[in-house]
Specification:
The chain has 165 residues and is α+β, with helices and mostly antiparallel strands. Helix content is 14%, strand content 30%.
């Protein structure tokens, strides 16, 4: 089946953003993909697949609680992007989230980091790059949005065959 004929998997993605006292958007949260998953060690915005009958918001609330141990406030559906990976075609539903409660718990033994543009952690998952570009547009940021990795994380079973994304 060609890439364009593959049925996309819908994924809810949380773009957690801190705001300053004036309400301006600041740092955003990235998490690493856990060991044992495709693209292990790559940095992404947290989230996961929609289950049967779930809305994007329901899936995002469930996933962020399961993965990070937090309860999110209002979900602001933002952008949708279609990504073709070697293992799957995914429709990413990016949602901005500005409020949450609870202490962050890395329940899948992943790492987390608060970042600004340009993102300093490497490597960045290909599906994350459009968000960084959208941030650059919204924030009038000029220059590279992220550092380019020299190669895959150590010990990673990289579906890109050893090339940086």
């Amino acid at each position: 089946m060609s890439e364009t004929n593959r049925v996309p998997v819908d994924v809810a993605v949380g773009v957690l953003i801190e705001r300053d006292a004036a309400g301006r958007e600041g740092r955003f949260l990235l998490t690493s993909r856990p060991v044992g998953k495709v693209y292990a060690g790559y940095w992404e915005f947290p989230g996961g697949k929609l289950e049967q009958g779930e809305t994007v918001e329901q899936a995002l609330r469930r996933e962020l609680h399961e993965e990070l141990g937090i309860t999110i406030g209002a979900v602001h559906e933002w952008k949708i992007a279609l990504m073709d990976y070697p293992h799957a075609r995914v429709r990413l539903h990016f949602c901005k989230v500005f409020e949450w409660t609870g202490e962050f718990q890395m329940r899948e033994q992943q790492a987390m980091t608060w970042q600004q543009l340009p993102v300093q952690v490497v490597p960045v998952l290909p599906g994350t790059i459009p968000v960084l570009d959208w941030f650059a547009q919204e924030r009038a940021f000029a220059g590279a949005t992220h550092v380019i990795a020299a190669g895959p994380p150590q010990g990673n079973d990289n579906p890109l065959g050893g090339r940086a994304p």
